[in-house]
C-alpha cells in the first residue's frame, strides 16, 4: 500500500504535465503512460534493488531534459528515489559509480538528441539542456542519496546502541551467574581440601586401630563400624562436592588452610602414615608456586591415606631456577584401600596446576609399585590465555558514529562543491553568452532594411542573445523570422536587444528593444 501511494505521488507531476500544459508543450498520453510505467518500475525495485530504481529515475530525468527540455516533471521522482536508495544501501561506492555512469551516458546522449542540423553547433538552449541533464543527475541524485545515507547511518548508530545495551544486560546476568557458581565452587573446594583430608586421616587412624593386636572382638567391631561411618561420610562429601563444583579451579594461589608442607606431613605421620620428605626446603620454593605445591602434597597424602593404607609415602621437592617439581610417591599398600575413588580432587588439582602454567601427572608408578602424583610448575605464574572473543560492542558503536559523521560531512561537502560548481558554470556561461552575442551599435546602425541576408551575416556575432524576449516587442513582420542580439557584454546589466528580422533572404526589419 505504501508503494502504491508513493507511485501515485511521484506520478502526479507527469499527469499534471499532460493535463495543464499548452497544446504545443503538453505531454502526450503515450508519454504520460510511459513515464508512469517507468516510475512504477522504479518504485517496485526500490526495496530490493534501490540503486537500479535510482538509475531508472535518472534516465527519466535525462530523457525528459533531452527530448522536452523540461527539468521539472521527473525532478521529484529522481530526488525521492535517490533519498530512498541512500536509506537502503549500506555501501557508498555503488552510489558513486552508478550515477557517474548515468551522467556520462547523459553527456553523450543529450547532444545527439538536441543536435540542430541547420546550425554549425549547439544552440544556447541545447547547451542548457545538456547542462541540466548532466549536473541534475549529480546534484539531484547524489545529494539526496547522501542525505538518505546519513539517515541510514543514524539508524545503524541507534541499533548499535540498543545492541550494546542488550549485550551489557546479558553480560550483567552472566557475571551474576558466574559469581554464584564461583561461590559454590569455593565451598566445594574448601569441603574437599579440609574435610576430605581430615576424614582420610581419621579413617587411617581407625583402620590402624582396627588391625591393632590385642584388641577385643567387640572393640574391633566398633572400630570397623566407625571406619565405615567415616567412609560413608567421605562418600556423601564427594557427592556434595560434585553437585557444588562446576569445574572452576578458582585462584591458583588459593590455600584454604594455610598449612605448610611440614605441618601436613606431621599430621599425616601422627595419623599413622609413614611419610618422608626430602629435597629443597619449602622456604626456598618461590612464592607463586608454593601454594600449588602445598595443594599437590595435600592431595597426594589424602589419596595415599584413602587408597594405600600402610604404604610408605615419599615427598620430594626440587626448586630450580625456572620451575619447581613436586612428587608424592606411595609404595604398594600392605592391604587394599577402602577409600572413596571419586576422582574429583585430582581433576580439581589438575585444573589448578594448568592455570598456574604447569603439568600434573597421576598414575601407577609401575606394576605392583604403588601410585605417584607429580607436578611441574613454573616459578612465575603464566598469564592465562583466553580465546579471542567477539568484537566489543563499544567498537561497533564507535565505528557507527564515525561512519555517520563521515556521511554527514560528505553530504555537506558534496552539496557545497555542487552548488559552487553549478554557480561557477552558470556565471561563466552567462559571461560567455553575453560577450559572444553582442552586435556593436555601429554595425547595427550600418545595416539597411532590404539588405541581403548574406551581407548582414558577415557582421553578425556567431550566437544570438536569446530566442524570444520576455517583454512586449513591436509586431514581427509577416512571414519573417527574427534573431535577437545583445547591445552590451554585461550579463548583469539591464537587458537591451537588437532585433533583426529576415524574409526571403532579405533584412525586412531592424528594431531596438529596450526593457
From TrEMBL:
GO terms for molecular function: kinase activity. It catalyses: ATP + protein L-histidine = ADP + protein N-phospho-L-histidine. Keywords: ATP-binding, Kinase, Membrane, Nucleotide-binding, Phosphoprotein, Transferase, Transmembrane, Transmembrane helix, Two-component regulatory system. This is histidine kinase. It comes from Microbispora triticiradicis. The chain crosses the membrane at residues 96-115, 127-147, 409-432. It comes from the Bacteria. Coiled coil: none annotated. InterPro entries: HATPase_C_sf, Sensor_HK_TwoCompSys, Sig_transdc_His_kin_sub3_dim/P. It is an enzyme of class 2 (transferase). Residues 183-245 form the Signal transduction histidine kinase subgroup 3 dimerisation and phosphoacceptor domain. Its EC number is 2.7.13.3. Pfam families: HisKA_3.
Amino acid at each position: 500500500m505504501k508503494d502504491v501511494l508513493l507511485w501515485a505521488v511521484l506520478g502526479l507531476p507527469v499527469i499534471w504535465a499532460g493535463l495543464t500544459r499548452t497544446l504545443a508543450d503538453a505531454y502526450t498520453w503515450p508519454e504520460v503512460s510511459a513515464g508512469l510505467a517507468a516510475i512504477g518500475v522504479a518504485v517496485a525495485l526500490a526495496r530490493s534493488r534501490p540503486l537500479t530504481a535510482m538509475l531508472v529515475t535518472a534516465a527519466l530525468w535525462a530523457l525528459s531534459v533531452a527530448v522536452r527540455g523540461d527539468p521539472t516533471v521527473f525532478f521529484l521522482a529522481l530526488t525521492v528515489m535517490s533519498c530512498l536508495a541512500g536509506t537502503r544501501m549500506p555501501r557508498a561506492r555503488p552510489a558513486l559509480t552508478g550515477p557517474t555512469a548515468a551522467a556520462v551516458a547523459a553527456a553523450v546522449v543529450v547532444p545527439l538528441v538536441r543536435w540542430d542540423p541547420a546550425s554549425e553547433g549547439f544552440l544556447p538552449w541545447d547547451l542548457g539542456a545538456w547542462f541540466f541533464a548532466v549536473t541534475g543527475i549529480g546534484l539531484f541524485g547524489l545529494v539526496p542519496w547522501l542525505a538518505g545515507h546519513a539517515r541510514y547511518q543514524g539508524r545503524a548508530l541507534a541499533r548499535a546502541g540498543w545492541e550494546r545495551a542488550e549485550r551489557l544486560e546479558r553480560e550483567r546476568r552472566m557475571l551474576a551467574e558466574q559469581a554464584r557458581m564461583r561461590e559454590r565452587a569455593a565451598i566445594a573446594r574448601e569441603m574437599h581440601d579440609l574435610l576430605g583430608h581430615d576424614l582420610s586421616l581419621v579413617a587411617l587412624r581407625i583402620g590402624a586401630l582396627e588391625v591393632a593386636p590385642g584388641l577385643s572382638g567387640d572393640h574391633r567391631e566398633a572400630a570397623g563400624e566407625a571406619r565405615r561411618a567415616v567412609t560413608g561420610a567421605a562418600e556423601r562429601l564427594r557427592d556434595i562436592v560434585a553437585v557444588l563444583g562446576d569445574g572452576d579451579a578458582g585462584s591458583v594461589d588459593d590455600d584454604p588452610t594455610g598449612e605448610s608442607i611440614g605441618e601436613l606431613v606431621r599430621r599425616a605421620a601422627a595419623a599413622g602414615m609413614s611419610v618422608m620428605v626430602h629435597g629443597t626446603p619449602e622456604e626456598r620454593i618461590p612464592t607463586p608456586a608454593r601454594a600449588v605445591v602445598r595443594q599437590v602434597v595435600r592431595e597426594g597424602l589424602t589419596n595415599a591415606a584413602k587408597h594405600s593404607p600402610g604404604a610408605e609415602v615419599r615427598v620430594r621437592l626440587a626448586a630450580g631456577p625456572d620451575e619447581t617439581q613436586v612428587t608424592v610417591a606411595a609404595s604398594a599398600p600392605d592391604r587394599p584401600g577402602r577409600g572413596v575413588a571419586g576422582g574429583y580432587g585430582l581433576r580439581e588439582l589438575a585444573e589448578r596446576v594448568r592455570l598456574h602454567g604447569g603439568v600434573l601427572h597421576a598414575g601407577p608408578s609401575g606394576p605392583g609399585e604403588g601410585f605417584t602424583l607429580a607436578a611441574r610448575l613454573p616459578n612465575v605464574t603464566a598469564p592465562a590465555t583466553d580465546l579471542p572473543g567477539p568484537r566489543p560492542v563499544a567498537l561497533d558503536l564507535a565505528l557507527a558514529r564515525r561512519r555517520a559523521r563521515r556521511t554527514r560531512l560528505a553530504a555537506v561537502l558534496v552539496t557545497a562543491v555542487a552548488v559552487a560548481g553549478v554557480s561557477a558554470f552558470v556565471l561563466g556561461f552567462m559571461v560567455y553568452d553575453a560577450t559572444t552575442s553582442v552586435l556593436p551599435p555601429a554595425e547595427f546602425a550600418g545595416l539597411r532594411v532590404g539588405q541581403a541576408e548574406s551581407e548582414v551575416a558577415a557582421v553578425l556575432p556567431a550566437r544570438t542573445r536569446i530566442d524570444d524576449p520576455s517583454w512586449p516587442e513591436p509586431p514581427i513582420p509577416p512571414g519573417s523570422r527574427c534573431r535577437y542580439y545583445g547591445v552590451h557584454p554585461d550579463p548583469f546589466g539591464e537587458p537591451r536587444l537588437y532585433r533583426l528580422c529576415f524574409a526571403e533572404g532579405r533584412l525586412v526589419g531592424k528594431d531596438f528593444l529596450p526593457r
